[in-house]
Amino acid sequence: MKYVFSFGIIISVVFALLSNRSGEVTNAVMSEGQNAVELAIVLAGSMAFWGGIMKIAEKSGLTDVVAKLFRPVIRLIFPGVNPEGSAFRAIVMNLTANLLGLGNAATPLGIRAVKELSKEENANGYATKNIVTFVVMNTASIQLLPVTAAALRLSYGAEAPFDILPAVLITSLASVTVGIAVAKALCSENLRIYSRRKLADESN
Amino acid sequence: MKATDIVIPIFILIVVAYALYKKVDVFEAFTEGARENLMVTVNVLPSLIALMVCVGMLRACSVLDVFTSLISPVTKLLGFPEECVPLAVLRPISGSGATAMLNSILSQNSSDSFVGRVASVLASSTETTFYIIAVYYGAAKIKGGKKTIAAALSADFTGFVFSALTVRLLLM
């Protein structure tokens, strides 16, 4: 991520100087920080609300019930994760929230899942195969209903705004599958390095 | 649209009702979860600022427009509508930007046209890749992410290709 960030800035400035858009870029620098804080304030209420709801679900055992339902699928995608552990539960909750289109519930759950996975796998800030797979599943939308696009289509007079649903489902399924496959393929050799590192840590 | 209006209230109802059945202190659980999530929001803020500044700069210097016009000939060959290319480039980078772009595409092309439909499917089939990676890894203090970005972008790319494919095969 550090390369993306640095490259992004360098490319922007160079390009801006070349195309005489330094004014716009300066404006962006000055205003985007403020925009980010405003965005965070706007989101904080919604995130807090869903956090509360999810905590209720957790305390009542509802999330465990749902986790049991999804257990076979999750075990298939995330080998080696303890089905009784908090990482497993967080993964299930995050994926469920994503399916239901609850982005503001999904994000904190996703962060928790990554933290728990990192702890459980002794990863020490390293992106293990399960972590990469999980994050990639979050970046490829698994939302069942394309609410935003449908709302926009409706506002422009579409008679059946949700008729894109089959196309969206197939496309989402395809992109998630490819994402998981590539994640697993890219990370497979690292299991050797990672387990070597784990052995080194354990012998210290 | 009716379906989505019902889903969220019913979901909340199920959660609260089940918790009452299980004799959970709903209010206390709620405030505890809310407090946790507020902390998450605060911890996310640095990564969010970094990302939004970066994205803002990229969009301001119009490098994305140049990139789009560079790859247009290729996408034309693949049967991918030209008007959707800026959306495809923007979608992994900025969620609000993508929504704005979808809005502008729909305002210029009928919602039922090929272009309108591909744009709608595309916008719905992938999330804001860089935002998620930056925020999740930033908050959980995970370093690196090259493999994650590579895998995520392959997923996004598959999404683009399939959005044109499925619309062409299923809806037109």
3D structure, described in words:
The complex is a heterodimer of chains A (204) and B (172). Helices cover 78% and strands 0% of the residues of chain A. The longest helix of chain A is centred in the first third of the chain and has 38 residues. With 204 residues, chain A is an all-alpha fold. The mean pLDDT of chain A is 82. In chain A, helix 3 packs across helix 4 and helix 6 runs antiparallel to helix 8. Helices cover 81% and strands 0% of the residues of chain B. In chain B, helix 2 crosses helix 7 and helix 5 packs antiparallel against helix 6. Chain B has 172 residues and is mainly α. Chain B is globular. At the A-B interface, helix 1, helix 2, helix 5, helix 6 and helix 7 of A face helix 1, helix 2, helix 5, helix 6 and helix 7 of B.
Helix/strand layout:
The complex is a heterodimer of chains A (about 200) and B (about 170).
Chain A: H1 2-18, H2 22-59, H3 62-77, H4 86-99, H5 103-120, H6 129-139, H7 147-155, H8 165-187, H9 190-203
Helix pairs in contact in A: 1-2, 2-5, 3-4, 4-5, 5-6, 6-8
Chain B: H1 2-21, H2 26-60, H3 63-77, H4 85-90, H5 95-108, H6 114-124, H7 129-140, H8 146-171
Helix pairs in contact in B: 2-7, 5-6, 6-8
Name the features.
heterodimer, A: 204 residues, mainly alpha, globular, B: 172 residues, 8 helices, 0% strand
